[in-house]
Amino acid sequence: MTDPSETRSGEEPLFQLSPSERRHQEAILLEEARHRVERCLRCPLGKTRNKSVFGEGNLWGKLLFVGEGPGADEDEQGMPFVGRAGQLLTQILQAAGIRREDVYITNVVKCRPPGNRVPTFEEMMACDEYLQTQIALGRPSLLVLLGNTPTKWILKTTEGISKLRGRWFSWKGMSVLPMFHPSYLLRYPSSTEGSPKHLTWLDIQEVKRKWDEVRGTDLCSEGEGQLS
Ligand code: SF4
């Protein structure tokens, strides 16, 4: 996305947006994208959705979580990660000292795939412009990919989440960390050492450490300190 105040090198800018003016413009563009999604029929999921699920939180908090797509609860409420898996994600964030409202949460596709199936390549392709808009406007430093679908989509890999989770990758100037999707943790609730839940606890603490680093603050003592 082109910043209207940007010029080719060597030219004087016609005008310079202040940080607050820039944020204001970005917020307007974000709302425009949200309205486009609400009306979008670019792929078949638009015909079967109840409500589109654009995203929620602070897009400018430097930390963006990307899941696969809305489920039944999200489709009903129009908000991301509000079902059982979403509640677990909130707990995981809280345990690490990350307030959900301080980060942004969205999905690769903005409408629910029927029966919670994995979105097709064509559906993800059709919806990608919205995710890319969110990323371009928010310019997050850190991207956390929840589960196989966003990991494969963003990193263009065929490797599974079990191999990739917990490792930082570089993508378009951002640090990207794949993590298990919370719905996977609901299926494997054990928190013994080496279990998906235990590994997720390690991963989210790593995310928090890096988030503090990019924000230039040390808020490590804020968390509740455990993931039960
Ligand atoms: S999933 Fe994305 S591309 Fe498909 S209809 Fe919904 S908003 Fe449009």
Automatic annotation (TrEMBL):
GO terms for biological process: DNA repair. GO terms for molecular function: 4 iron, 4 sulfur cluster binding; metal ion binding; uracil DNA N-glycosylase activity. It comes from the Bacteria. Its EC number is 3.2.2.27. Keywords: 4Fe-4S, DNA damage, DNA repair, Hydrolase, Iron, Iron-sulfur, Metal-binding. It is an enzyme of class 3 (hydrolase). Residues 54-205 form the Uracil-DNA glycosylase-like domain. It catalyses: Hydrolyzes single-stranded DNA or mismatched double-stranded DNA and polynucleotides, releasing free uracil. Belongs to the uracil-DNA glycosylase (UDG) superfamily. Type 4 (UDGa) family. This is Type-4 uracil-DNA glycosylase. It comes from Aminomonas paucivorans DSM 12260.
